[in-house]
Amino acid sequence: MFKAGIDQDAIIHMFSQASARQGDALRRAVSDATLKALQGRELTLTNIRKVLETVTQAASTGMGQNTLPAVDVGELLGKAFAGMDAALLQAVQAHRMALQQFVDQGLALQEKNMKEALANIEKMEDVFFASVGKAAQQATGPLQPAWEQVLSAMRLKGTDTGAQAATSVELLMAQAQSAMRDGRAAGLRSAQAMMESYATLVSGVLIGMSDGLQASTPETKTHNT
């Protein structure tokens, strides 16, 4: 285990043995590993960057060790990117759910901590690209241009994380305006105090989301093993 809280050896091994037919399994494995790492720390942008960089480096190392014939490096790295995107999408949803609690209690989006939290949601896609891009620059041989192709394609297409972030900000702003019109102020002082530990709260929401999903789909583990 490394300081980012990710079993890099497991990711490296998967990519070193991966063939094109295992692409979807890789995507799920990367998503699970990224999500667990995000759940294990406060959900700050700094921690998110560290997790994404670590996962990217592990995928690159594994692909560099892959000696299977006719392996499409770009396709498999694309699956790694998609896995990280799926995990980060859930992180954005956790941010929205946490902030919605404060909005419902009457806390204005113009309040300092709320404003910062909202800005962090808006930055999520940029952080995603920057983190993967930074780690990809350390790749060697054909891996670096392969990562560049993946990043270029996804910048044109857009990520699920980016789309969810934009939607979340729009929804929160609309809900805040509605709360202001309704004169909602119940629990305002308590909400302001809770904002002081916002990153920890979002981590708890993210864990709760995953627990709820697993409880509602007990057959998932059987299908994925």
What would you say this structure looks like, in words?
The structure is a single chain. The chain has 225 residues and is an all-alpha fold. The protein has one domain (8-224). The protein is 76% helix and 0% strand. Helix 2 runs antiparallel to helix 3. 38% of the residues are buried.
Structure, briefly:
The chain has 225 residues and is mainly α. Helices cover 76% and strands 0% of the residues.
Poorly predicted runs? 218-225
Number of domains: 1
Shape: elongated
Strand-pairing-aware structural class: mainly alpha
The total of beta strands comes to 0
Which secondary structure elements does this structure contain, and how are they paired or packed?
Blueprint: H1 8-16, H2 23-39, H3 45-64, H4 73-104, H5 112-136, H6 143-157, H7 160-182, H8 188-194, H9 198-216, H10 220-224
Top keywords for this entry?
76% helix; mainly alpha; disordered C terminus; 225 residues
